[in-house]
Every structure is written in C-alpha cells, then in structure tokens.
Amino acid sequence: MNKTQAPVISRKILLPFILITFLFALWGFANDITNPMVSAFKKILELNNFQASLVQLAFYGGYFTMALPAAIFVNRYSYKKGILLGLALYACGALLFFPAAAFQEYYFFLTALYVLTFGLAFLETTANPYILSMGAEETATQRLNLSQAFNPLGALGGLIVAQNFILNALESDDLNEQGEGIYSTLPEDARELIRISDLEVIRNPYVLLGIVVIIFFVLILLVKMPKDENKESRVPVGKSLKRLFKHPKFYGGVFAQAFYVGAQIMCWTYIYQYAESIGIPNNKAVNYAIFALVLFLVGRWIGTGLLRYFHAGKLLFLFALGAILCSAMTIIISGHIGLYALTGISFFMSIMFPTIYGIALEGRGEDAKFGAAFLVMAIVGGALMPSCQGLILDMGGAGYNDINILGVPEINFSFILPTVCFIIVGLYGRYIYQQRLN
Fold first, then answer.
1. Using alpha carbons only, how large is the chain's radius of gyration in Å?
2. How does pLDDT run across 213-236, given as a tens digit for each residue?
3. Which of 163, 321, 331, 400 has the fewest CB atoms in 10 Å of its CB?
4. How many domains, in total, are found in the chain?
5. Cβ distance 137 to 107 under 8 Å?
6. Contact, 126 vs 82, CB < 8 A?
7. Distances from the Cα of 242 to the Cαs of 75, 318, 358, in angstroms?
8. Residue 181 is assigned to a structural domain of this protein
9. Domain membership of residue 355 as a residue range
10. CATH, residue 340
11. Would you say residue 2 lies in a domain?
C-alpha cells in the first residue's frame, strides 16, 4: 500500500461531499421502495407478471431516456445546476402519485415513476462524476465506493417503509393470504373500495418523499459547491463521444453495467415472487429483502476497504464468481436454502456498480460527464431484464410454480438470466485485470 496516497476527500470540501453523498441514499430509497411495488400492483390491479414488471420498465426506462440530456445540460451549465434540476424532477414525479391514486390508473402511476426517474437520471449522471472529481484521480474509485456505500442505507430505509407503511397495510394482500384468489373473487364494488384504499396506502410515502426531496433542493441551492474548471468546462459532444468509444475499457464498462443493473433489479424484484412460491407472503418476504440489503451494505464497506489492496478489475472478477455461485444455487436448490442463496447474491453485487463506473471513467478527464451519461443509460438493463424474467414466469400461467423447466420450477429457472449477467460482469473484470498485467 502506498503510504503517501492522497486523501480520499479533502476537509475543505467535506460539507459539499456529505450533501452529494446523501443524494446516493435518496435515490437508493426510491429504488427500493419501488421494487416491492411490482408484486403490490399485481395484486391490487389484478395484473399478470409481465404487466406488473412494467413498473421496472417505467422506472429504469426513465434513466435511459434522460441520461444523455442530463449530460448535455451539465456540459452547458454545471454539476450543481444539474443536481438541482434532478431534485426538481424527482420531487415532481413523487408528488404525481397523489393524482395517480385519485384516478386509480396503473399507467398514471407508471408515468409518475417515469418522471421521477428523469430526476434520478440527472442525479446519477451528475453526482457520480462529481464525486470522482472531488479529489485526486488515484483515489477516485475509492471515493465513489465510499459515497455509494450510503446508497444501500437509503435502500434499507425504502424497504423498511415499504414493509411497515405499505405491504403490511394492503387489504388486498391480507385477503390473498387467506387463500389463493380471495381478493379476485370479491364483487367489483367491494374490490373497488379495497383498490381505492390500497392505492392511497402506496401514494402516501411517495408524496412525503417528494417533500423531503424539496428540502434537499433548498439545502443544495444555498450551499456553495466546489467547481473543477477542467472537468466542468464545455466540451464538444461529438468529439467527446469519439474519444470515449476508442477505449474498450469504457464501452466494455457500459456493456457490463447494463447487465449488472439488470441482474441487480431481477434479484431484488423477484425475491418476493421466489419467497411467495415457497409460501412466504410479501409482508414477510420483505425481511429477506432487508437482509439482502444488509449484506449489500456490508459488502460495499468491505469491498471499499479491499480496493486499497486489490486491483479493481481483480476484485470485480472475484465478486462476480461469488454471485455466479449463489445464482446457480438459487436455480438448483428449491425452498429456503435457495432463498438464502438469492439473498447472498447481494453481498457479491455490492461493489459492482461503482467499481465498473470508476474503471470505465478512469482517465477520461473532461469527457467523464458524457461517459457518465452512457453508464447511467446502461441502467436500462434494469428496465428490460425484469420484463424478460416476467415473460419466463408467465410461460405456465400467472403463478410461479405452474411448470417445470429443465427439471426446476419456472421461478427457479428464471434466475438463469442474472447468472448470465454475472458471467458478463466477471469477464469484464478479468479483462481489465489482464490489461493491467500486460
């Protein structure tokens, strides 16, 4: 270890660093209060698995739509203005849950999530490279892993709110626990009363979240933020993109990131369906999701420390191997052991996003803002992959154990998709480490 290594973060900009780092928790909260909504909307609005998965398509599709415009905006103005616009869009999307619940329209909720993630796209496109720029380049990946370590704290908060204020309060879920299809067999007027009540239960945490986001908007508006003239100067878009896509480390990182995010969202979304397939209801299954996030948080802190001793590519490869092993166990082993393996994946996923991000943007200088946009656009993997998994689950019907595929229930087999994703991430890590040795 180099004893004269530059500090991860200078004391001079500690307050701005803390404020931007809190944003990582803020979008983590949005991510993980939303994951259980796939299963919740399916029950309340009587959807099939593919229709319910559109929650993730809307949520992560917003990232793909807005990431490049966010980078163009930041290129023209500044990181701070990009963050402020992101917070404004985030708040707007969250507050749209109020009219969505009033109209009882699924596609209104999807629109609200889509707008909300316009804001998240601005925040992630801006905050990630901003954190990278807040110090020496040799500590940039460590600095990003440190900030990203607060993301699962926000995610844990989202899951706890989802469990205590949404899932435990859903009347439709309580009825379904009494027997398969109880809610769906009620008369239409009875179902409508329950539907109104349950949609209001979903609405309230999002509206409160919108108010919290407005408070952060005011705080960041008032605080003087550091500005790196070299990395915030205007750069011609076309020339920047040409430079970026000359580097396999960059475009390989975009490709790997898309598959990583797809794997993460599949594992965190369908943990509820996996649990339900072995008789665990949603409001109990969230405990396994919380445990998965605790493992994710522990892995993030351990991984950040290990980056001082391991090359980033090598550590990424080793963690990908662990994720592949857990995924294989999830497919092959049914019951609680398979569920434990599914939660264990989160430990190995912990370092993947920031490590891929840091590797891909290393040495990109003023091109980092556009590079960041493509790495955030790669989050579209989280929109597409869960829908593909939903299609696998619908092969035998609306249930999760309707048919066996290659000798295992369809819910188990569907985790072949995350397994393939982790293989691709592992190959990228191995390539990066080998390039370093050459």
1. 21
2. 999 999 999 998 887 655 555 677
3. 321
4. 1
5. no
6. yes
7. 16, 32, 20
8. yes
9. 11-437
10. 1.20.1250.20
11. no
